[in-house]
Amino acid sequence: MAQPKHPADRPDQGTPRPESRPPDGGSPASTITSARERLDRLIDSKLRATPRRGALEVALALAAVTQKVRVNAATEPFVTTPADLLERTFDDASVAIDSAGMAAFKANLASLLPGIAAAIRAIPEDPRLRIGDVARLVALSLPLQLWKARREGRPPQTPSIVTARPVHDAREHARNRYGTHFAVKATDAVLMTMRRDAGVSFGIMRSPMRESTVRGQTPDTLVLELNVPAVQERESSTSLLASGPSIRAAARSVEREGTDRRVGSSGLLRQAHVANIRDRFFKAIAPLYSEIGSRVSAPGGAEALSTRRTLDVCWLNQTLRTIAVPEALAEAAADDT
Length: 337
Prior knowledge:
Number of domains: 3
Order of helices and strands: HHEEHHHHHHEHHHEEH
Number of strands: 5
Distance between the termini: 116 Å
Structural class: mainly alpha
Low-confidence stretches: 158-164, 199-219, 232-244, 298-308
Radius of gyration: 32 Å
Strand content: 5-15%
Largest sheet: 3 strands, antiparallel
Strand order of the largest sheet: 3-5-4
Number of helices: 12
């Protein structure tokens, strides 16, 4: 029978090995705790930055389902209504998404981010979920999409291709339904509004909406952005102040407006210039105003118009709000006379 080796001959026994000390001289337990805390802070800093990568798409997909959510992507960072959208749940009163709306939201989001459609389909359709948690899942899935694209040797899908498609689809929809003239002249905002009101938004699925043409209801309005040539800048104030007739003409113009006469010469010229811009705008859009006004038809009859005017013009924003149906606008756009 083999004799047991002397403890000193065993690699795991004998003289105890010197305990390894941390570089800073602290105890091993406190050192590993500190290291883990530093690592957690690094991870948290990355996680706090990642949700912004998918938050815009999440907000857009929500805005396509519920009218209570609005997105302004013209600013950096983008702005949502409500402002704390990511902190709310889908069934929050300011969002109002139910289980059916969750399905529509997921379909919208998958259309905006087709590269992570599998991850989006796995999202539970429970409206009690927090919107920010879904945005975080989207953000964490996006780097995986890029990694898979590099592994497969194909270029990743760029956001520009995804975001440009809805406008293109809306313009094609207007071209097929209302004609080329209207599709060419209408702005992107008008086309997207009409596309959304037709039951499709962002070229994707939309939840059922209450029809606005039911008897007894006023029809929805459409805001048109008008492209009116800008008024040429007037001469400098110094040269105008030296011209007596110009000041007298400005004074007569301001007096007709009924404004305060206690303004100085520069104020008179400014008010006259503003009035000139307004008058030129109204003269420029007069034919269009008359053309659309003659074609306006209200589905609910005269009673539906009792609380809303058929045409409203804002010269400052250069917009025209109308209840005219798209067909009437298309006919007006095709009339070049």
